[in-house]
Amino acid sequence: MRRKPKLPAETKVFICEQYLRDKKSLMQLSHEFNLGKTTVRSWIKMYESKGAGAFTAKLHNATYTKEFKQQVVEAYLNGEGSLEDLTIQYDIPSQGTLRRWIMKYNNLEELKDYVPKPEVYMDDCRRKTTLEERIKIVNYCLEHENNYKQTAELFDVSYTQVYQWVRKYLSSGEDGLIDRRGQHKRKEELSDIEILERKVKMLERQLREKEMENDLLKKVQEIEKRRSSPGRKTKPNT
Questions:
Q1: For the chain, which residues score pLDDT lower than 50?
Q2: How many H-runs (helices) and E-runs (strands) does the chain carry?
Q3: Which of 62, 77, 137, 204 sits a CA distance of 20 to 30 A from 14?
């Protein structure tokens, strides 16, 4: 399935040309198009590196071998470029993707081959599940950085199912995973205690998700500090 960018490629090219040719500032462009300066700067670097083709929507996800992942991670650890530079150079979809590879590498976790499997996005991958299964699936997904695709593959369900279950769980806790078809309880039918319980569970899930994000950022910052220190050591090839 073709990805749908938030802005068409032509608009991104136009923004880059406004900066490079017409000498508009990042501040002007970010304000005019309601974009973050970091986003605009990243597009400009991509455009300078690969031209208009950098914004062409891909028909499917790329395939990454474990050797490729290790090559990019070691390039980062050896100071050959920033996260932004390397994602552009190696055509990686986001800095978050590279961050995850770096974290796995530094935690001595195996970097595995990644082969996209479009079938997990199809509705015909749906199957009936019990409440216990859905709870297990959601917990696995949250514990693995909201990797919906990996979770869908592992538990033989669709990407859409996993995504919806996680959203419901974060909003209403385990109650949100109950199959209420034919017996849906409307919001106005809930007691005050039930409403408070749902809010508490929602806040607990949001807090847990935020803590996971903060932990990941702290670990990446630690890597950045080790990179910049004179006596840093990198992991040898195995």
A1: 1-5, 59-60, 119, 124, 182-184, 233-235, 238
A2: 10, 0
A3: 62
Task: Return the SS3 of 64.
Answer: strand
Please tell me the number of Cα atoms within 13 Å of 230 on its side-chain side: 0
pTM tops 0.70, yes or no? no
Extract long-range pairs of 149-157: CB within 8 Å, 24+ residues apart.
149/117, 149/120, 152/120, 152/125, 153/117, 153/120, 156/125, 156/127, 157/125, 157/126, 157/127, 157/129
Q: Read off the amino acid at residue 144.
A: H
Question: 92-110, pLDDT tens digit by residue?
Answer: 877 888 888 888 888 888 7
pLDDT of residue 138: 92
The C-alpha atoms of residue 91 and residue 46 are separated, in whole angstroms, by 9
Tell me the pLDDT tens digit for each residue of 116-139.
555 455 554 566 888 899 999 999
Q: What are the sequence ranges of the domains in the chain?
A: 9-55, 66-115, 119-203
Give the ranges where 51-147 is alpha helix by DSSP (H).
Answer: 66-77, 83-89, 95-106, 131-143
Percent of the chain with pLDDT over 90: 3
Name residue 148's amino acid.
Y
Token pair in block for residue 138: 């959601």
Please give the span between the terminal C-alpha atoms of the chain, in angstroms, as a whole number. Answer: 37
Instruction: Label residues 15-45 b or e (16+ Cβ within 10 Å = b).
Output: bbebbeeeeeebeebbeeeebeeebbebbbb
Look up residue 160 and give its two tokens. Answer: 């859409």
